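Hey all, sorry for the wall of text incoming. These are the two entities for the joint prediction.
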Amino acid sequence: MARLRYVLKRLVYLIVSLWGVSLLLFLILHALPSTPGQLMLGEGSTPQQVAAVNHQLGYDRPLLQQYFSYCGELLHGDLGTSYLFKRPVVEELAVALPVTLKLAFYALVLDIVVTVPLATLSAVRRNSFIDHAIRAIPLVGLGMPPFWTGTILSVIFAIGLKILPAGGAGHGILGNLESLFLPALTQTIVASSILIRSLRQSIIEVLDSDYVMTARAKGVHGYRLIIGHVLPNAAVPTLSLLSVLFAGLIGGVLITESVFALPGIGAMVVQAFHVYDIPLVSGITLVTAALILVMNLALDVLFSILDPRVVLR
Amino acid sequence: MGVPAGSLAPEPAVAAAGSWSASDPGPHRFRPAPRFVVGLGIVGLYVVLAVLAPALAPYDPLSQHINDALASPSASHLLGTDQLGRDVLSRIIYGARVDLIASVAAAFFACVVGTAIGLVSGYTGGWIDVTLTRLMDIVQTIPSFTLLLVLLLVLGSGTGSLVIALTVTHWIAYARLIRGSVLVLRGQDFISAARLAGLRAPRILLRHVLPNVGMQAVTYFASNVILAVTAIASLGYLGIGIQPPTPEWGALINDGQDFLSTNWWLSVAPGVMVVVLGLGLALVSDGFTERRRGA
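and here's what came out:
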């Protein structure tokens, strides 16, 4: 019951936040002095041409009127019509979003697969050579821009060794898994840098706690101790970090798509940017924000189920 | 840019191996760790490159020699030439000017704006605090990449627009850090004493609060420059922000991408510049964090 009330409360908060994001986007795109006519036509245009474009796109109406029609459309699930594709933004997103979601999910799974063993090894063999080597990863990983890491990975694995495709999303589940491996790995190199640091620290704290000493005294050791007793507790702080990280993950995924020529919303937003397709850019921005809000809510609920000590507020 | 601004913030929970305090002979002796010195050296090298670019670069970064296009590395062109016959080494050296100055400027403005907002938000409380915190929540919900695109769409391209857009996306990390510390400080006796003595809020904030929380912002600054450099290079790679023919590292990586199978160094070399700068800044940032913990 308490959980249901918590989820409802968070849903209301989610909707309010989304409204806030839409208002912010509206203000940036509509209330600033530069109009789409000026942006699209450039410096060589006459004021008449600019005015004509602005009129056609409805930017010459009073600001309040623009805002009400924007809200009305949003409430009907209408994100406007893309100037570039001449189709509703929602339809374009329906095609591109699954690619981005697949990549984001793949990257998230890969993050966990990479982080958990490395952090555990690092924590268990504290201050050994291996620990120092693993802890050096963030120093390099954090400064590696995803587009460059992606380029390097495709030079090695796609052009040099020729064992993985350099672009495209592939077909079918196996095709996806193969084609999206390098893009997901690109993202993981940055994300795991942060996660390893956090998880290692919490494992060390848990290893020093009394209940682990009790478990050891009872003769539990090795994998059974780590997997059965240490990791479930140590994972909680890192899981909460995951929700912060997800925003970064989505941002990174969007850039990575352009490197690997993936037909997701990241490549689409760049394409839209270059031709001043305002509805498409703002639609994609709104959808990514919604994605992050939903993901955060899901993680928080999961978090409360995993850890009974979490107080629902 | 693949990293949320907040996650690079100094994490007090992370234990420091061999922190300075352990090896310090006196309580207040500043003896920097070797890693910090190495980091400072790396960053210093980039500053020298940026400042002395005209003297250090063997050629004009913009002069084209089409007959010499895509030459392999040789004695006359240490890193070869690009598809327009421009000297790659010179372009990379001038890139230090473009990328370093823009990212430091962006981090500086974000630091000033974020610190000011954090001070006001944490100290005044009430509806001002609630409004500012909500604003931070909302801005942080939008991935910085798409927010940058929306801002640049309206501001237009160019270094100035890029710095403004980065400031708008990066101030929040500072504001949150500072606000958190101010909330703790606000209840302390010396602040109450200052208020009882009749000091006005601006004076209390600048003379009594800021000196106590300012180091937080300074510590985060190096991490912020890493974020700004990767953001600028990522956007440059996508042809957004700083425009050609300006030698920007991300744009250089993109230029070289068509020739990866033959002239791979065209893309790899400018990328190494970004990564090594990131490493240097990370070492400096770690050094500051440990220094604060040790003190």
